Amino acid sequence: MTIKPVRKAIFPVAGLGTRFLPATKAMPKEMLTVVDKPLIQYAVEEALEAGIEQIIFVTGRGKGALEDHFDISFELETTMRARGKSLSVIENIRQQPGSPVYVRQQEPLGLGHAVWCARDIVGDEPFAVLLPDELMVGTPNFMAQMVQAYDNVGGNVIGALEVAPEETDKYGIISPGARDGALTEVTALVEKPAKGSAPSNLMIPGRYILQPEVMKILDAKEKGAGGEIQLTDAMAKLIGQQPFHGFTFNGERFDCGDKTGFVTANLALAMARADIGPAVRSFAEARLV
Ligand code: UTP
């Protein structure tokens, strides 16, 4: 079996972000900043560092700020240049003309539906999916580690992270088979299992490498948990037909779609910074006594 390289990545950014209202009423959740960078930029940088060549955003109404973020900001750049200020901090964000690719999900019908909206851009190639509201911190980064694992085993490789057993009803959960280092064979998948019925405490975080056949399954637009078209249900149908592994990331995950995760991500990343870290740390220490 030849293993095709992963060149394309889908970023589903069409969700409503209701857990983060009122912040997300007029601003996309993916533009929330951790220290000084929006979540979407962390995710795009993770993909580019992992060797991804084509960035595909699945967007919706009210998400224009995301497109502007990766474009030229004419007034800002002209003014900064005139004032002799360095543009490096914004110039390195800008993508090549014609990239990223934007497709629309007219209604937020679920993650599976969002991924399916990019089917024509993906074509018959394997692709990555990154959910930008999950901030992953590690070296090499999460997607880079996954791509490395995928290059050995091929097929489908999804994140697999342990959570507390009482939390399993919030996530897609993996039924695990044989384990080999960071890779775990996936024997079944279930989205948001009822309390007490989860096959393990291995949840699926927002990082995936999938084969294009999943798009054919998503064509059926079957609804699952919460009445949404679930990516987990479509992926589950590939098990047995193609290699399917969970990958345990050596690093940290912050769920920034949730207030606690967002605040702790800001604290952790701020404390790790050379410029502001000492001041933030001494403030936190003083508060904790
Ligand atoms: P979430 O499950 O966090 O949903 O989506 P959400 O709507 O953004 O947020 P809440 O739950 O209302 O607060 C995870 C990712 O999938 C995208 C979101 O934009 C987010 O990046 N998504 C979700 C879509 O693009 N389309 C959908 O139909 C659902």
UniProtKB/TrEMBL annotation:
Catalysed reaction equations from the record: alpha-D-glucose 1-phosphate + UTP + H(+) = UDP-alpha-D-glucose + diphosphate
Nucleotidyl transferase domain sequence ranges: 13-269
Organism: Sphingomonas endophytica
Official protein name in the record: UTP--glucose-1-phosphate uridylyltransferase
E.C. number: 2.7.7.9
Family per record: Belongs to the UDPGP type 2 family.
Record lineage: Bacteria, Pseudomonadati, Pseudomonadota, Alphaproteobacteria, Sphingomonadales
UniProt entry keywords in alphabetical sequence: Nucleotidyltransferase, Transferase
Transmembrane segments: none
